Amino acid sequence: MKMLRAKLYESKVQAQVGDVAAQRKMMVRSGDRSEKIRTYNFPQNRVTDHRIGLTLYNLSEIIDGKLGICWSS
User: Fold this and answer.
1) How would you write the pLDDT of the chain (73 residues) with one tens digit per residue?
2) Helices and strands of the chain, counted as H and E runs
3) pTM of the model
4) Distance CA 25, CA 23 (A)
5) 41-54 as b/e: b if 16+ CB within 10 A
């Protein structure tokens, strides 16, 4: 009876671990290029916001925090 109880318990624990792992896998993203919000390209002085499809060619000003200048150009 102890062996049966231990096997049933182990089976239940493994099922719970599997469920938690499956839920975590659905919540955690892979970090692929397609999932990025913004791309900074220093050699071409370019920043692209992929959510709104905006590309600006003044990365150095954006990095310095001069966002008002970026939107007006």
Assistant:
1) 999 999 999 999 999 999 999 888 887 766 666 677 888 999 999 999 888 888 999 888 888 888 776 555 4
2) 3, 3
3) 0.47
4) 5
5) eeeeeebbeeeeee
Residue written as token pair 């692209």:
48
- Cα(43)–Cα(47) distance, integer angstroms: 11
Helix (H) or strand (E) holding 23: helix 2-27
The token pair that represents 73 in the structure block: 């150009």
Instruction: Give the tokens for residue 72.
Output: 């007006």
DSSP H or E stretch at residue 63: helix 59-63
